[in-house]
Amino acid sequence: MSILIKNIKELLQVRNTNVTIVKGDDMKVLPTLKNAYVLIEHDTIVEYGSMDDYYNMNAEEVIDATGKIVLPTWCDSHTHIVYAGDRTQEFVDRINGLSYEDIANRGGGILNSAKTLQNTSEDELYEQASKRLIEVIKMGTGAIEIKSGYGLTVEAELKMLRVISRLKKDFPVKVKPTLLAAHAIPEAYKNNKEGFMDLVVNEMIPAVSKEKLAEYIDVFCEKGYFDLEDTERVLEAAIKHRLIPKLHVNQFNAFGGVDLGVKYKALSVDHLEELNPEDISALQNSNTMPVALPSCSYFLSIPYTPGRKLIDAGLPLALATDYNPGSTPSGNMNFVVSTACIKMKLTPEEAINAATINGAYAMGISNMYGSICRGKKANLIITKAIPSYHYLPYAFGENHIDTVIINGKRF
Ligand code: NIG
Ligand code: FE
Q1: DSSP string for residues in 270-300
Q2: Which atom of ligand 1 is least distant from the CA of 325?
Q3: Under 8 Å CB-to-CB from 33, ≥6 apart: which residues?
Q4: Looking at the CA of 84, which ligand is closest?
Q5: Is 90 exceeded by the pLDDT of residue 56?
Q6: 352 with 13: CB under 8 angstroms?
Q7: Distance from residue 28's CA to the centre of ligand 2 (Å)
Q8: How far is the CA of 327 from the centre of ligand 1 (A)?
Q9: How far is the C-alpha of 178 from the C-alpha of 278, rounded, in Å?
Q10: Dist CA 361 CA 20 (whole Å)
Q11: Up-side HSE of residue 258: CA atoms within 13 Å toward CB?
Q12: What pLDDT band is residue 17 in, cutting at 50, 70 and 90?
């Protein structure tokens, strides 16, 4: 199968293969080619260039993209799309005055989702998650990280990870699985956190590793959940099983989670709504990607990650959705990009870099995804006819996508 996309108004994120991360001031630059073409063969971008240099190329399908923009699909490096049911009642409770913390303290929140998930069959869970995955692909996501963490027992965590593994097999998008081993202290261990830590370290991590169900390890490092000592214990155990850390840190409190992540060579540290100067210094001496989740801030009305500060300190930044039932029931990367511009004061160029190449870096796949490059996977968004790429974040809430191509095929 081959596809030729011709007369592209502007082709975004055209890079050399060796660019796998973009940092600091370089994030302000989005390399583009106006009046361009792209040639796809099988699942690969084999050629692109200016229409001025175009010569007659043979392809089974020719798409005329006059007036349209083409860009790499979004790389969503932080999601929890495998969950059961929803938490609409808690949403209403929050509108009526309860906080996210109040709800968690009365046994709702993550524990509520865990209870529902434990009572849901693997097949039913797969059905629910695959619907979400189809929706996010239609919205332009071509690579996605998916976490466990609503199981809270060995059996239920394995069930979640098996669902992720089935999604990975059945869908053309790139799926990267993460064991979110320590997400909340389950009801059964309410007064015995150490007992739960023993379960995670001695049973959960080895069982997941044995079935090769995860590549990454995550911990919700937060007051009232898991402290630095707990996080370190999980990381020590997981690293022995070759799981790479990607952590939830600094969502509500900053107390050294970033530094710990850097110490354990985390691929990414995510959330960072609360950030202090020490966190920035720690990141400056690392290969760890800071990840902001602006639709979580929007939904919970908590501060936005100071993305401007991070970029102005010379750091890279990635953007992801955090799609989950409690803090972000949305997997729309277009909204994330808009919100990063509107609320975090990222320029459209910075936001697009953060949602493509840097998102791919935060999943360890930026050698094959996240930019337009000969030899990279043919995962592309073709927009509707729009005035410019600035229009994407500007006209928020509108669907600008005409076609999504995944692995060289229309989705
Ligand atoms: O990333 N903060 C931890 N985990 C999720 C939310 C979990 C939930 O409320 O279900 C997050 O925001
Ligand atoms: Fe999350």
Answers
A1: EE-SS--HHHHHHHHTSSPEEEE-HHHHHHH
A2: 10
A3: 8, 10, 11, 14, 48, 49, 50
A4: 1
A5: no
A6: yes
A7: 27
A8: 6
A9: 27
A10: 6
A11: 28
A12: confident
pLDDT tens column, 309-322: 999 999 999 999 99
Separation of alpha carbons 404 and 383, rounded Å: 9
- Where does ligand 1 bind, in terms of residues with CB under 6 Å? 109-110, 113, 220, 248, 251, 296, 322, 324-327
What average pLDDT does the segment 42-58 reach? 94
The 8-class DSSP code of residue 27 comes to: G
Q: What is the pLDDT of residues 177-225, one digit of tens each?
A: 999 999 999 999 999 999 999 999 999 999 999 999 999 999 999 999 9
For 6, phi then psi, to 5°, come to: -115, 165
Q: What is the mean pLDDT of the chain?
A: 97
Give the C-alpha distances (Å, rounded to integers) separating 341 from 22, 86, 394.
17, 29, 8
Q: For 122, list phi and psi in degrees, rounded to 5.
A: -60, -40
The DSSP result for 75-131, as a single string, is EE--------S--HHHHHHHHTT--HHHHHHTT-THHHHHHHHHTS-HHHHHHHHHH
Per-residue pLDDT tens over the stretch 61-87: 999 999 999 999 999 999 999 999 999
Tokens at residue 94, please?
């929050």
229 burial type by CB count under 10 A (0-12 exposed, 13-18 middle, 19+ buried): exposed
Q: Which domains does the chain have, with CATH numbers?
A: 2-72+368-410 (2.30.40.10), 75-361 (3.20.20.140)
**Ligand 2 centroid distance, CA of 192 (Å):** 24
Euclidean distance between CA atoms 62 and 157, whole angstroms = 45
> Residue 305 and residue 296: Cα distance in Å, rounded?
10
Q: Is 285 exposed, middle or buried (0-12, 13-18, 19+ CB in 10 A)?
A: exposed
DSSP notation for 30-59: --EEEEEEEEEETTEEEEEEEGGG------
Return the residue matching tokens 């009642």: 89
State the Cα–Cα distance between residues 258 and 262, nearest whole angstrom.
Answer: 6
- 3-class DSSP assignment, residue 313: coil
Alpha carbon nearest to ligand 1 atom 12, residue = 327
